[in-house]
Design brief:
Elements (H helix, E strand, L loop, with lengths): L12 H20 L3 E2 L5 E3 H8 L4 H5 L3 E3 L5 E4 L4 H10 L9 E10 L11 E10 L4 H17 L5 E7 L3 H17 L6 H5 L14 H8 L10 H16 L5 E2 L11 E9 L7 E7 L3 H4 L7 E7 H7 L10 E7 L5 H16 L4 E3 L6 H10 L2 E7 L4 E6 L5 E5 L3 H7 L5
Parallel strand pairs: 1-5, 7-8, 12-13, 12-14
Antiparallel strand pairs: 2-4, 3-4, 5-6, 6-11, 7-9, 9-10, 10-11, 14-15, 15-16
Helix pairs in contact: 1-5, 2-4, 5-9
The chain binds adenosine monophosphate (AMP).
Amino acid sequence: MFQAPKGTYDVLPRDAERRGILKSHVQRIFGGAGYRRIETPAFESTELFARGVGASTDIVQKEMYSFDDGGGRSMTLRPEGTAPICRAYIEHGMHKLPLPVKFWYLGSFFRAEQPQKGRYRQFWQVGAEAIGAAAPETDAEIIVLLAELLDAMGVKGTRLRLASLGTPETRVEYRDELTGYLHAHESELSDEVRARIDLNPMRAFDSSDRGTQAVMANAPKLLDRLAPDDAEHFDQVKRLLDVAGIRYELDPALVRGLDYYTRTLFEFSSDALGAQSGVGGGGRYDRLIEQLGGQPTPGIGFAAGIERILLAGAEQPIAPDPVDLLVVVADREDRTAAVAGFELAREARQAGLAAQLELTGRSLKSALKHADRINARYVAIVNDQKSATLKEMDSGEQHDLKATGVIATILRGSRLA
Ligand code: AMP
């Protein structure tokens, strides 16, 4: 017996419905704000992620599915969406479009992580990016739109954590200060954190080790070191969120697993989830496009996990798909009647009806039972090439018609008297 690979799962038709609802909310909320859909390939050159996501991140160091494309080039299944979208922005010369260029996307991503509830090796994300806009209003807009989406999906117990990373220059200075502080407390840190002090000191804030946490409680905080214009930018973002009635907590230790962020950083989590409580987050990446070979261009975006939105979201009552008509051929051995039935179902669909053809060879009696089960409004029993019996399932009324009259009768919605 074959099984779906570890860390992957099937989206069965019954699960697909809520994904459809999610997508229509995304289209309404982000489309309404001028964001348009973009989809990039499922794999890209490995170098794009090494450069875009950051060589020292967990994603690049441990979680990428990389392979040789057959021509000696290393490719990687996309672990995230921002670097590919920036690549597309540069490649298609989108800086010539009226700025900002605003995108949303919805697709699957791949990370070689240890699977657990809410964490998969192939998972789905919905995200948005606003490229070419430096104003703090953009940061607040992205956060407000994501909050609206989570709200529309009935995601319960959400918490928003907010921070600012300042500019890379501030971070370099701060990083030196933090590295010095960590070295001064080396003996109190976990082995893992100690080994990475010079590689990625910020990750120490992420540690679950008690001793490390105690050290980090007194560590210098980046929020206290922001340059004046970064601090001003951050103040305006907070002001706008206040006006929008969005509650947030400032989290000086907020760290996300991607290196490209500058200034605003945010993350929504939900109490309704277990250990993997992050629902979605993002931030500003004002240097990324330049880093990937484009002109200096500010940008901000977010990505949210679809599995987690669905786990933490409200079950929505799902209306069964309507079935206007089930076509049943009375005598399947009668080839011309079978053709007439096939044609009737096809023409009914062309006329805008939701029409299905009975395909399993059920007896007439069990076909009528099946019609009840799928909630069909009408059943057309095709007797021969020319004549049919149309039965209205609610009333039980039935009437013999010319096969050509079936569709018109249903469209009129008239009683079959
Ligand atoms: P990130 O791209 O790491 O900032 O992740 C953004 C969101 O994607 C997270 O908050 C999660 O909701 C979701 N996510 C990230 N990695 C996974 C994964 N391995 N499985 C399921 N969801 C994930």
